[in-house]
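Subject: two folds for Thursday's group meeting

Dear M.,

Sorry for the delay on this. The cluster queue was jammed most of the week, so I only got both jobs back this morning. I'm pasting them in the order they finished. Each block is the input sequence followed by the predicted structure tokens. Could you check whether the formatting survives your parser before we put anything on slides? The first protein is the one we discussed after the seminar.
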Amino acid sequence: MAAGAIVAGVLVCFAAGALAAQKPAKQVPSKQVALKQAPQKQGLARQQPKKSEPLKKDTKTDAKKDTKQEAKQESLKQESSKQEPLKFSGSQFEPLKWSDLTGWAADDHLAAFAAYQAGCRTARRKPRSDERGQIFGALTNICRKALALEPQDSAAARAFFEQNFQPVRIARLGEGEGLVTGYYEPVVAGSRFPSPEFSVPIYRRPRDLVADGYKQGSTAFPNKGGRIGRRTENNDLVPYHDRGAIEAGALDGQKLEICWIKDPLDLVAIQIEGSARVILEDGTPLRISYDSHNGYSYSSIERVLAERNLIPRK
């Protein structure tokens, strides 16, 4: 835009200069003309080029324009190269029709679009990484479309998904069925105070739970890996209390309880999912989320029950 303004200004100046040159004037000495024109500082006569010379371009401006244009084209080229079908090692994709999806026609597509649009706003603020570059590349253009739309009804929202996505059946190579896992946030009843009804405590991080290489009490804590435990009097790092010891009262008396809930299975679900909303007795929602772990590997309850033949194997 700035370059356009500069060029337009030059053309106006030249046009005004040409008109001034065509206007008849009295024959006067050149010195007197110079004296009369000097205070005006319009520069029209000085900016007028010779008729035989072509209009000079602003080479700096043009260079900048060319550089920006090349950068834009390169960016579009890179973006288009990333928009390849997603590939997952050891998996197979089988394209489906939208009509093949059970319940698709009856879904609340407007609510789904609102959720997708909110996700696009969040994704736009996050930096790209090599780890998720393929996902970002595949969704960038679709997110742009979503952020520019305001569908007024479910039919319009449904059309957006059907025009921009392809449903597929995902399974391991050579298998006919796939396994899909999901995340959810448990919502459970709870209390700030223990009682016969609310007897299962949810603990905050114990003060003596440490990770090797981290300062005791540090906000940061490794999600996995590393040596986790507690320090002895000799400053040796030993394993921390396991679940059995904690449930038997190893943390009692340390005032670590955030709240109490009813069912120990709800506590396991909260620990697996990593967050929950506890609805207190007065209706106040209490949001809790993952903070740390005791250093032991995760054991699936379902797997243990299946190994003991208490439930059928799938």
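Second protein, same layout:
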Amino acid sequence: MGCGGAKRRQPARLMEMLFKPQALSRAIEAIVAAGGSEAAEARLVADNLVTANLLGHDSHGVGMIPRYIDAVLEGGLLPNQHPTATLDSGALLALDGRKGYGQAIGREAMQMAIQRAKRSGSCSATARAPPPSGPGSAAPIIAPSALQA
């Protein structure tokens, strides 16, 4: 009596599209710039999101763009922000991300921490309230070479 539909159904196929990383990054850059970001910030965000996908961190890749667009439109994400210190005692630095893109806030925060570490010998820094910023931190890449310079 059953029609056996479940047995006859084909497995769901996901749509798959392949993009060259550079072309995808430029497209994402244009979207971020359209949201009000200056060119350097748009490029940084786009490159970070594409890199996240290339490294297998798809949850923090270009799929974040719809969330970013909504956040910009709702005022929860503000383009072109810079971190401000809420606590600065030399080797201890607490920063407010001011609702900026985590990629930009994180990079600036790292640069500020590196400068403090050069002066003080070490630095412990934290940044509050940036939105998700991609696959982890750039610290293991940026800090060692900057501290040796």
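Two things I noticed about the second structure. The radius of gyration is 20 Å. The first strand starts at residue 84 and ends at 88.

Cheers,
T.
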